[in-house]
Automatic annotation (TrEMBL):
Pfam families: SUKH-3 (PF14433). It comes from the Bacteria. It comes from Alitiscatomonas aceti. This is SUKH-3 domain-containing protein.
Amino acid sequence: MTKERIPISGDLGSKVKQLMEYAGWYEGRSVDISIAEKYYANHGVPMMKTTQRFYRKYFGLCCEWYLAQKKLNWAADFEFALFPYLVNGIKNHLEDAYFRDMSGCELAEIEQAAGQKCQPIGHIGYYYPAEVWISEYGKLYAKYEYQDEIECFPDVFALIERELRQCKFDSAAMKTVEALDGKI
């Protein structure tokens, strides 16, 4: 389902909060994550407690955000894609490969940088979204294909702020995860 374009204003922190609220987040949000827990278990990766907490807050938010991009029939300019990807009711055919890579060879690099156990959560970002992991202490680690450094964020709001610091926008339209509409 497409959510109509609304005005977004204020400083960047305020804009990010407005975007998250329009995407479906609210203070104290706690949704059923059984679909995601089953996905992780089926891949031999039981969810850590911090991953579960993160998913209860953010699973099922609108996955495609149209900020500077005004044409809704074009690709969204911002992704909020958590595993499993359920786009328009069809699983992304690259999803298993992404999850396998982010749980395998790339995970060791992230855990070395974090100094603790981590799990992949998906892709979040503007145009070239970051691969994102969560640590057992709840910090987010982002890896970008266009830079060597792994970045650490205290929460998803800080990550989104980093992503949007160069983006000029004053409104947003979004698309929901249709496979989850009315289910969480």
